[in-house]
Amino acid sequence: MIAITQINLSNPWIARGCVLSAGLLMAFLAKETAEWWKKKKLRREWNSVGKDVVILHQFIRGKYCLNLSPYALKVETFLRLANIKYVVDSDSPYGPKGKCPWITLNGEDLGDSEIIIRRLVQDFKVELNNHLDNRRKAELEAVRIMADEYVFWCVITWRYWLDGCVTFLQTHSFPTLLNPIFPFFMTRAIRDKAVMHGFGVHTPDEIYEFSKTACKTLSKILGKSLFVFRG
After folding, report:
1. Which residues of the chain have pLDDT under 50?
2. Which burial class, exposed, middle or buried, applies to 161 when counting CB atoms under 10 A from its CB (0-12, 13-18, 19+)?
3. Which of 124, 154, 182 marks a domain boundary?
4. Domain range spanning residue 139?
5. 15 vs 7: CA distance, rounded Å
6. 195-217 pLDDT tens trace
7. 71 and 114 in contact (C-beta within 8 Å)?
8. DSSP-derived secondary structure for 117-168
9. Spatial CA neighbour of 105 closest among 75, 61, 62
10. In a domain, 49, yes or no
11. Which of 124, 143, 167 is the last residue of a domain?
12. What is the rounded (10 degree) CA torsion for 135, 137, 139, 141?
């Protein structure tokens, strides 16, 4: 038998607690409903762009470059080189994997820049490296991994932690009220992630040397060309 306890609302503390709980529940439901309607509206807009048009979800544009996210730049550069039609959405930068960028293609959502590019190559039958032999393709893949998994940590560790977001805020457009708040949260978050990764346990001077060596290596690979292994 289930015992039902009657709430004594004559107690002022209990009454206030009930009112507060009801208020929080209503606020939560209102927030969830608003988000649901927003997602539904955005989904209708995304579905209206047409067949085989890529919707690239990413951060807002920087002041001096298309995007300050290396991976967003990577995907958008690929779309341009492959002549794939796309539109940019900055209202929903984080996708199904909680990462930026992500894309929507014909109603399907895809996350992670490398998975996105592989899928686009498959669906649009794009092969930008068909002029390379297998060894060159393997070398190019090694360069990509170096940039994605090593140079990336050099960049964000300096940008958000060691530099304290100073240069970042000079090159990005944020509402005025967010300027003092963003470094407080971002610096801590990137520091903790860098330490967990292992890169952040090094001293600033050591990180600088790692970064300089990586940049010199990429410079030697590029030589005087604008592209790696340009055909």
Report:
1. 1-4
2. buried
3. 124
4. 134-222
5. 9
6. 999 999 999 999 999 999 999 99
7. no
8. HHHHHHHHT--TTTTS-HHHHHHHHHHHHHIIIIIHHHHHIIIIIISTTHHH
9. 75
10. no
11. 124
12. -150
- Output the six-digit token pair for 22: 């009801």
Query: Which residue's entry shows tokens 């794939």?
Result: 84
Residues 173 and 199 grouped into a single domain: yes
Q: Which two tokens stand for residue 135?
A: 């060894």
pLDDT confidence of residue 5: 53
- Partners of 88 in the beta sheet? 56
Query: What is the spatial distance between Cα 7 and Cα 200, in angstroms, rounded to a whole number?
Result: 54
Around Cβ 43, how many Cβ atoms within 10 Å? 14
Q: Can you tell me the distance from the alpha carbon of 96 to that of 112, in angstroms, rounded to the nearest whole number?
A: 9
> Has residue 79 been placed in a domain?
yes
Residue pointed to by tokens 């990137």: 190
CA angle 105, 110, 112 (to 5 degrees): 135
**What is the model's pTM?**
0.79
Look at residue 6 and tell me if it is in a domain.
no
CA distance 95 to 100: 6
Distance CA 1, CA 101 (A): 54
